[in-house]
User: Fold this.
Amino acid sequence: MASATVRRIGFTSPVRGMFLSLALIVLCLSADAQQQTTPKITALRASRMLDVNSGSMVHNAVILIQDDKITAAGAAMNIPAGAELMDLGDATLLPGLIDCHTHLMARMSDDDPQGYGLALLTKSQAFRALEGAADARVTLRAGFTAVRDVESEGSGYSDVALRDAINQGLVEGPRMQVATRGIAAIGRYFPFHISPDLPDFPTGAQMISGPEDARRAAREQIGHGANLLKVYADWDVPTLTIDEIRPIVEEAHKAKIKVAAHADSPDGIRNALTAGVDSIEHGHKADRSSFDLIKQKNAFWVPTIGYYFYAVDTAKSPQPHKYMQETLVRTRQNISIARELGVKIANGFDPDSAETHGKNSHEIIAMTKLGLSPLEAIRAATTNAAELMGWQDKV
Ligand SMILES: [Zn+2]
Assistant:
């Protein structure tokens, strides 16, 4: 204890302190990973730490970190000689947060209906990867130390490159699982309204038709380094069929990775779950039968409602305003049904613009406004999210 170096950091508000401390933890970790060749122990000390599993608050918290791994955490633990001590004072610590539904490679504009196509037309994949690196940095600095990136939105396999660059310490960002290109039915995903004279115009997802095509896409994406696969089970109406989703799930599960399904409607959700997917993303038009099936299949629900919660009052025209308002009402009812049935909810903000990256915690706040308790919302962004990623032993 006597030989530990003490750095004292003051905070003005507990909430600000909580998020700052997270950011500090991860910044220190990434710096350590690059500079230290011998094991180095860092000790963090703070007034409180939330034990997310039990829901109880640990007082006089100490966390020991060796290189980039937490090795111990508890109340008033001894700090080993030689450890660097960071005393965070009157702060509350909680685990690094996880976002299970992000698109770091996406910087789209809601204002321009052709913005998606223009991005594909005017930005190289190299540039998209660098945008992704900037988005990864703001996400990490917002306290999110792991993300599941559910489709690179037309930037090919640049998400694989970003994930690997972060792992090698070349750029700063959260630990990533990447879905690479995503898989959609031909003509049923962005960009829409491209001239039929341009059949080779790049697409947001890998477009398929038929079970063999689906299997080929799954194998290609896994071969190029996907950590999960993403399918689009509907887009206004059901799109991929059960027979198309099933071979994708087979190939993924053989490779010990999971499948996330974009599915809003009861029919899309039923098709995706019948084919064996592991999570339903959005589910904005889900009904009680949808949640019965999610529960029965032991799948996760990732509601992605935070953007609507924050954007509803600033919608520029009546139609999106009405849609967002109705979706918020339905989601409030559906969160109540999911809680009643014990459906596992994982946190995901779905940011896809320069403005929304780094605002991931909006999702956690929105879920509490729509019916989750604060502890349930934090679990959605920590323990539940880790389980969805299959990283419950790591993060
Ligand atoms: Zn999304």
